[in-house]
Amino acid sequence: MSEISRNDPNARSPKVAIVYGSPSDAQTMSKAGATLERFGVPYEQVSVSAHRAPRTLAEYVGELAARGIAVVIAGAGLAAALPGSVAALTTLPVIGVPITGGALDGMDSLLAIVQMPPGVPVATVGLNNSTNAAVLATQILALSDPGLRALLTAFKDDFEKAAAAGLEEALA
Ligand code: RP5
Fold it and tell me: What is the number of structural domains in the chain?
């Protein structure tokens, strides 16, 4: 698996795999890692191309569930085959992040990721919105983790407080 450089920023066993098609996607996908860190969710991140290294991808994805990964976040641009390819190779939930760039500036990526055939879903978030991918991954993990659920409740409460404060300011 030499094409994969696995970067595990956590000491604990990763629960989420963040996968992207090229090192050029790393900055966009870094918001996913930052958000998972905010919730204390251990993760790993790898760059592997569905088009350029399909056998490497299949080998990596085939081992994810056995290694304890519960959710995959997959981001790619252009003809973004990666999230769908991952979904084809695993029964783990896959969250896709379409990435802007190229002649069509992300429309190609968005449609490639969202338009999966019945039976092979990719839960697609907005263009470049790897933050939402990480929040959704955390919500999936929280189904069986009351501590994470409490953190998510506090996270949403912060939105409510900020919105209420803004309203009070506007009415003052
Ligand atoms: C996609 O093509 C990658 O996900 C990236 O978004 C885009 C450009 O890749 P590079 O040419 O920078 O490797 O496969």
Answer: 1
